[in-house]
Write a structure and sequence with these properties.
It comes from Reticulibacter mediterranei. The protein has one helix and 37 strands. It is mostly beta strands.
């Protein structure tokens, strides 16, 4: 150091470098510890792309079919034990089970396979692309649509029908100049497709199910700048009527002619927070307004005549369920309503659900915890802090099934996909399926 006390250039350099070196050393030690212990968790999100979606689950009470994942796996397992019955890869991004036959669709829409559900034997394979209606708002998923002895689907830019017995193409018809349309619903005599005409305009078309002949068109608005616009429109055929629900209106058409029967519009500032439920000639709608809470409206299916209203708390409505003549809603608590007048049968503030399923007089709900509630009294039967909370997907008479992404491990660069089977009696775990797949 010079006599005037001024640091030398070398010491000034170390003065600035030491803090950065300390920070770098600390981060390195932390990463090494986490990598060694397998506990890096969400920090790895910076290094890995988005995880694959959880496995889909379908059960008939005896057999559970798991499908999807990075390898498009189809795995049939005993519902009681989880033991493997048969398994195939590269077949099923989505599937449907119909009359003892599995129709499995690959994610690239290039292969549809029919298999015997009992043993996985391949019955036939079609290289034609089959696409499906959306499984939820804002999402256009892909899966086979089976009605009777026919599979309906999207073949590139054309709509087609395939015979379930052997995969033979029955008919095919062009829909639009581009492939930006979707098969949305099928009933006994009609096939319904949607095409986005603009950022907030959707056209609904009805075609004859027997030969694909165009019957009628209907145009409807959705929210401005919604994408995809037709993903915002929910379509439900029921009793000779077609319900078209956008975020702000419900339009009911006659399926034979496409003529409007009646319309119900949300008030200014309101939106529909859940898909409508149709039961016993009544439509149940949930509307939400940020400064005014949520409302359940009961309307006559045939004419839209209001029957009653139920006003929920400002938190909104998270889930709706109709079972055994009652309407169950989850807001800041779980309510059971009489469908005749909307009066409260019981209220349980102990549970908060995002998803509800019903079986044998019990409501099973999934939110921050898993819970079982008596449908008749509202009594809490059991509650579980399971790590699987948030993934309730299927139910049979003895088990509920939850599918999660689990956690992933940076030391192995793998995804951990899990399916839990829990006993309906007490929420205890019956078995667990894990699929740890290396990240590609």
């Amino acid at each position: 150091m010079p006599s005037n006390g001024t640091p030398t250039k070398k010491k000034r350099t170390w003065h600035w470098l030491l803090p950065f070196l300390s920070i770098f050393l600390g981060i390195s030690l932390f990463l090494c510890f986490c990598t060694y212990s397998g506990r890096l968790g969400p920090f790895c999100a910076l290094a890995l792309s988005a995880p694959p979606p959880p496995f889909g689950v379908i059960t008939d009470g005896r057999t559970v079919y798991l499908y999807g994942g990075p390898t498009e796996l189809l795995s049939a397992r005993e519902a009681a034990t989880g033991n493997l019955l048969w398994e195939k890869k590269g077949l099923a991004n989505t599937l449907v089970v119909h009359h003892g036959v599995i129709y499995a669709q690959t994610g690239d829409l290039k292969r549809l396979t029919a298999l015997q559900a009992r043993d996985g034997k391949t019955l036939w394979t079609s290289s034609q692309a089959i696409a499906s209606p959306p499984s939820a708002p804002y999402s256009l998923a892909h899966s086979p649509v089976v009605v009777g002895e026919t599979i309906y689907g999207k073949f590139g830019e054309e709509l087609g029908a395939v015979r379930t017995s052997d995969g033979t193409l029955l008919w095919k018809t062009p829909i639009a100049a581009s492939s930006s349309w979707w098969l949305r619903a099928v009933d006994a005599g009609h096939v319904y497709v949607t095409e986005a005409l603009s950022h907030n305009q959707v056209q609904v078309r009805s075609l004859r199910a027997s030969d694909g002949r165009l019957l009628w068109r209907h145009e409807q608005q959705t929210l401005p700048d919604a994408w995809p616009p037709d993903g915002m429109l929910q379509i439900t055929p029921v009793g000779g009527l077609l319900l078209l629900q956008s975020p702000t209106s419900l339009v009911v058409l006659e399926t034979q002619s496409g003529k409007p029967r009646w319309t119900f519009s949300a008030h200014s500032g309101q939106t529909f927070s859940e898909k409508s439920i149709v039961a016993r000639d009544t439509v149940y709608l949930a509307t939400f307004q940020e400064d005014g809470g949520a409302t359940i409206s009961a309307l006559r299916l045939q004419n839209g005549k209001p029957q009653w209203k139920f006003h929920a708390f400002p938190q909104g409505i998270n889930a709706l369920l109709f079972a055994e003549g009652r309407l169950y809603i989850e807001s800041e608590a779980l309510y059971a309503l009489r469908t005749a007048d909307g009066s409260v049968v019981w209220k349980n503030p102990q549970v908060q659900f995002g998803t509800m399923l019903f079986a044998r007089g019990t409501i099973y709900g999934d939110g921050t915890t898993l819970s079982a509630v008596s449908a008749s009294t509202g009594r809490l039967i059991w509650k579980s802090e399971s790590a699987a909370a948030g993934g309730l997907v299927a139910i049979d008479e003895s088990k509920i099934y939850l599918s999660t992404q689990g956690r992933y491990y940076c030391d192995e660069s793998s995804w951990d996909l899990r399916v839990y089977a829990l006993r309906t009696t007490d929420g205890s775990q019956a078995w667990l399926y894990r699929n740890i797949h290396p990240y590609d």
